[in-house]
Write a structure and sequence with these properties.
The protein has five helices and six strands, in the order αββαββαββαα. The protein has helices at 3-22, 48-51, 72-81, 104-141, 147-180; strands spanning 38-41, 44-47, 52-58, 61-66, 88-90, 94-98. α1 runs antiparallel to α4. By secondary structure, it is of the alpha+beta class.
Length: 182
């Protein structure tokens, strides 16, 4: 595994962590809250945005307009069973989700959830580092690299790992600030 390849994988891990953070509710309506919710549509899990248009008419409401009216009950059921923590209101044509103001306890729960997503991203980055270091050691054993070259590459890999873990920490700090802002 080359350094550039490892760096690309680490960047993707940071982006994935950012997408996970976007699914955490911060007290404002945001269509990305429903990104992880899957609807059982004809036996296969389907994202809501494939079955409906999602809009946010104001800061505390999400409207879901199903493309096919027959799926509206399936969408409502999927939201109810998900971990989003919102109760859907179905009027037969659209589903409305009212976003209540967060309590201080709920904010702390969401901060913990963000920390969990952050740790998953860090573990992913560490796994990328481990795989790259193993590849470097194999190259050293097969005499493709000298000990000094292998040590230099491992040091560069560690610096790269530290850089991307710091990026995840920055994204986490921003998300925590967003969650804690009333």
């Amino acid at each position: 595994m080359k350094l550039a390849e490892a760096e690309d994988h680490m960047q993707k891990a940071v982006e994935s962590t950012q997408r996970s953070f976007n699914t955490i509710r911060t007290g404002r309506a945001n269509a990305s809250l429903l990104d992880r919710v899957m609807v059982d549509y004809y036996g296969s899990p389907t994202p809501i945005k494939s079955l409906a248009s999602i809009s946010t008419p104001d800061a505390s409401t999400i409207n879901i307009q199903a493309f096919d009216r027959k799926t509206i009950n399936l969408i409502e059921k999927a939201i109810s069973l998900s971990d989003v923590g919102l109760t859907p209101s179905n009027d037969g044509a659209t589903i409305r989700l009212n976003i209540p103001q967060l309590t201080s306890d709920r904010r702390l729960e969401l901060v913990r959830l963000a920390a969990k997503f952050s740790e998953e991203g860090k573990v992913s980055i560490r796994n990328i580092r481990r795989d790259a270091v193993e590849a470097i050691r194999k190259q050293e054993k097969s005499s493709e690299l000298s000990k000094d070259e292998a040590r230099d590459l491992q040091d560069k890999m560690q610096k790269l790992t530290d850089k991307y873990i710091a990026k995840i920490d920055e994204v986490l700090a921003a998300k925590e600030k967003d969650i804690k802002t009333v």
